[in-house]
Amino acid sequence: MKDLIVIGGGGFAKEVLWLASDCNRKVKGILDDDMDAHGTIIQGAKVLGAINTWIDYVDCEFVIAIGSPRTRFQVYERMLEHGKPCFAKLIHPNVRYSNTVEFGTGVIVCAGTTLTVDIKVGDHNVLNLNVTVGHECNFGSFVTIAPMSAISGNVSLVDFVEIGTGAAVRQGLTIGQGAMLGMGSVLTKNMPEFTVYAGNPAKKFKELPKV
Ligand SMILES: CC(C)(COP(=O)(O)OP(=O)(O)OC[C@H]1O[C@@H](n2cnc3c(N)ncnc32)[C@H](O)[C@@H]1OP(=O)(O)O)[C@@H](O)C(=O)NCCC(=O)NCCS
């Protein structure tokens, strides 16, 4: 198996380094644009240089360890300006899923998460610790689901959706592109694109700029 390069050196990257170790992946190092971090060691891995130097490591696989969907996408686009990196799928060995769950490229699925049946997890999704996903859910690209969230059956999350920690989503709903559901929210209605909803029941909080 190819060595792994972790993109990003923040708090989530530290968790991804732990995940990589649980997945028995050998980490070659970290790429991060914080010049002060270059040469330092984070969670046992050396910060090798800036993100645009990924091209020096084409024999490796990459994982973008950035929680925010928008920032993850921006970094992804910048990487593609220099070539076509090979992205790893990191799925913790204790994640439970049936053989009708499809994972896209570059996904990160953390320990304790369970996905049941007929589920599509799009490219570069991040499903953090102890998330549950019910039957026939469909997630677009660059979706992030924070720890302990419960996504009921038949839910669609369009590209760049972000679900806060411990949120619950009623079955059959659609959350529009780039929308964000606040931590601890209970979502009972569809969410339009580029909005923030929060509370129980979740109500519109504010609008977000388009991606
Ligand atoms: C919903 C959210 C996006 C709002 O952020 P914000 O626009 O910066 O809002 P503020 O923090 O300024 O809060 C504004 C008000 O809403 C309240 N509020 C914030 N988040 C809330 C939530 N999730 N549910 C209910 N009320 C919330 C605040 O207490 C505050 O109330 P006040 O005006 O009475 O003081 C944010 O609080 C949130 O939930 N983010 C997700 C965090 C998360 O899950 N991170 C995962 C890390 S792995």
Model description:
- The chain has 211 residues and is mainly β.
- The protein has two domains: 4-80, Rossmann fold; 90-200, UDP N-Acetylglucosamine Acyltransferase, domain 1 (3 Solenoid), CATH 2.160.10.
- Helix content is 11%, strand content 31%.
- An eight-stranded mixed sheet has the order 6-9-12-15-18-21-23-24, covered by helices on one side. Strands 7-10-13-16-19-22 form a six-stranded parallel sheet, with no helix packed on it.
- A hairpin with a 2-residue loop joins strand 3 (41-42) and strand 4 (45-49).
- The termini are far apart.
- The protein binds coenzyme A.
Q: Estimate the global geometry from the Cα principal axes.
A: globular
Q: What is the third-level CATH name, the topology of the largest domain?
A: UDP N-Acetylglucosamine Acyltransferase, domain 1
Indicate the structural class. mainly beta
Radius of gyration: 17 Å
How many individual β-strands?
A: 24
Order of helices and strands: EHEEEEHEEEEEEEEEEEEEEEEEEE
The proportion of residues in beta strands is 25-35%
* C-alpha termini separation: 35 Å
Counting DSSP H or I runs of 4 or more residues, the number of helices is: 2
What is the CATH-assigned architecture of the largest domain?
3 Solenoid
Ligand species: coenzyme A
CATH hierarchy class name of the largest domain: Mainly Beta
Q: Report the helical percentage.
A: 10-25%
> What value does the average pLDDT take?
98
The stretches of 5 or more residues where confidence is low (pLDDT under 50) are none
Tell me the CATH superfamily of the largest domain.
Answer: Hexapeptide repeat proteins
Quickly count the domains: 2
